[in-house]
Amino acid sequence: MQNIVQHSYAIPDAGFWRGKRVLLTGHTGFKGAWFANWLAHMGAIVHGLALPPESRPNLFDVLEIDKKIHSHFGDIRQFDAVKLAVDAARPDIVFHLAAQALVRASYKQPLATFETNIMGTANLLEALRGRPDVKVALMVTTDKVYRNREQLAPYPETAELGGHDPYSASKAASELVLASYRDSFLQEQGTAILAARAGNVIGGGDWSEDRLLPDAVRAWRNGDTLHIRRPDSVRPWQHVLEPLSAYLCLAQHAWSNPSTSLAWNIGPDGAASVREVVQLAHAAYGKGKIEFATEISGPHEAGLLALDASKLRQTLGIAPRWKLDEAVEHSMCWYRDFENGMSADALCARDMDDYLHAAQFVSQQPGQPA
Fold first, then answer.
1. Is 164 helix (H, G, I), strand (E, B) or coil?
2. Where do the NAD(P)-binding domain residues begin and end (predicted)?
3. Measured between alpha carbons, how far is 240 from 119 in angstroms, rounded to an integer?
4. Are 189 and 130 in contact (CB under 8 A)?
5. Which neighbouring-strand residues pair with 94?
6. How many Å from the N-terminal Cα to the C-terminal Cα in the chain?
7. Cα(322)–Cα(328) distance, integer angstroms
């Protein structure tokens, strides 16, 4: 019988973030609100730039993020609004999460998607040009930047970029803009530039339209049937705290290593089908009806997608903490307990505490990459 080898993996250093000036775009979104809350909890001085939240309810409001950070409403497609936010924040570190982030919405509004995801990124990078006080800028793109070959083999960072739908294409194009600004301007001024390609994110507090778990919660809470249009699509699912933790650790590393690699995949060790995630969510939520489509309809969406995040694990010691069943369980418990009257603050604090106190060792068989 082989011995099990245990490896310790990185977690964010709260002491590093205390007093750091941070500009966070997209702070009114689901992921951005979680991130703003975490940064504020660690004592960072956070300025946010985003459009007002769209959904009701939304995590930005229920967490009262505007009382925890300096919140600015503005459109990243407008350079003047971006520059004003950068001037106000005087950031040491920038996290760019603002985006049009939905595939199906990108088919309905392709120009708005390209403007937001490409020119919005360019506007922010231009506002950072000539500001050597900005030490790190981490730009969040997506796992969908790769030219999809409909293969189960996971994509490494060196895979070809592409994009069938406007969302995927816009994110791949934004990475070319990112590389150009890094090579032409920002590397010379000492600003580290990183692109974080994160897998599909789940977690409590997401009420967006056309997202799997929010759609499930809405249907089951109201006694409706959840209709799943593509049950066999495969994605690299992860709890929202996984990529946020990785963003923090990447920024900490780049602070003292400004020439660090540009692109980083952030995802779980494997991928799972929509059907598997829905079945786990149903078991955790405890009620509800599901109808899985037997024929594919609607605009093109990738069927198979998996990420190779071994570079992150092997070079920086950043690895997932929660397996898929744990990620889904925490997500559905968040929604269920929120409906039962627990505050969003208490629920997010509970998940963050559980996440940070999770076993800091990942068991591996000898011969597997650490």
1. coil
2. 23-329
3. 26
4. yes
5. 23, 137
6. 20
7. 9
Residue type, 345: D
Spatial CA neighbour of 240 closest among 16, 4, 29: 29
Domains, the chain:
5-361 (3.40.50.720)
Rounded CA gap, 55 and 282, in Å?
23
Strand pairing report for 192-198 and 136-140: parallel
Query: How far apart, in whole angstroms, are the C-alpha atoms of residue 74 and residue 48?
Result: 10
Side chain identity at residue 82, one-letter code: V
The tokens for 181 are: 């600004």
Q: Is 96 left (phi over 0), alpha (psi -120 to 50) or beta?
A: beta
- DSSP 3-state percent helix, strand, coil across the chain (nearest 5): 40, 15, 40
Structure tokens at 14: 């709260």
Contacts (Cβ under 8 Å, ≥6 apart) of 159? 146, 147
Closest CA to 142 of 301, 263, 10, 313: 263
Q: What is the pLDDT of residue 152?
A: 81
- Please report the beta strands in the chain, taking only residues with DSSP state E, as ranges in sequence order: 5-8, 21-25, 45-50, 70-73, 93-96, 136-140, 192-198, 201-202, 225-228, 234-235, 238-239, 263-266, 272-273, 289-292, 361-364
3-state secondary structure of 353: helix
CA distance 97 to 88: 18
As beta bridge partners, residue 268 has none
Q: At 267, list the tokens.
A: 């995802």
